[in-house]
Write the structure tokens for this entry.
Amino acid sequence: MPQIRPRTRVTIMLFCPLLILSGASSSLAQNTTIESFNKAKKRMVEVFAGHETTFYCGCSYTGKDIDLASCGYQPKKDGAKRAKRLEWEHVVPAHAFGQAFKEWRDGHPECVDRQGKPFNGRNCARKMVQLFRYMESDLYNLQPAIGEVNGLRSNDSMEMIPGEKREFGECDVEMENHKVEPRAEIRGDIARTYMYMNRVYPGKGILSRSNQKLFEAWDKLDPVDDWERERARRIETIQGNPNPFILAGVTDIAPMPSAPILGNRRSKVYHRPDCPGYGQIASQNRVPFMDEGEAQAAGYRLAGNCP
């Protein structure tokens, strides 16, 4: 019997880390603390205290004023006021996950303005859906950005773009045909943001098969750095939930339990995961549905090239 005790202790020591890692990858909590985008922006000022640097271009800023010369940024539009203004950007655009909510797509009986005109989109989803408000306000998905860059990026998806056009002076961000290529130093940060949002808010069509592969590559090529860890720690202190893709080294992004059916808002065609065009729908045109019946009820038809 005395010989069994050391072995028992060794077994516990060996298996505890594995249990901890397993728990980290399976129990991913959502934001349930901050329910207002305006409040979220104020809390992000606290998160970035002492690290006042814009995400895409690396410009220094003070308050809401950006020092464009600090990163060699050249506004695309002459005298663009928005280029000098700091804004808080959703890395995963609100439009990308907002489309998963019926209230965003179709409105709601309570979404009527003072003139009696019905409205949909972000304002209706924000008014009617608590989960949307939590997603819109999730601090892990917010980064400081030059206002002009934020506006031009809009809802465009992340991609690799051939060549180096450098339309913004020394700022290394390319935008073309509704695609955005960020500088190499932040590609992993972007990938892990998409991974986090996809895992903690499943069923919202955040990842497609094509950008999942891209983000897996970016995650490996640009590993977590000291500031990304510190930012995650600060956010966890404020928001209450951890981001295991940063602090626990989780890399399994669970291939899309989300949105088994994807519709194309422009063509009114929907695709199953086994359809050739499933991963080719531009992010700004994706509309997720839980099943074919929901897609058909919304006026969508099955893509002709589906088996």
Q: What stands out?
A: Residues 85 and 147 are 5 Å apart (CA to CA). Residues 259-307 form a domain with the DNA Methylphosphotriester Repair Domain fold (CATH 3.40.10.10). Confidence is low (pLDDT under 50) at residues 1-27, 255-259. The longest helix spans residues 4-26.
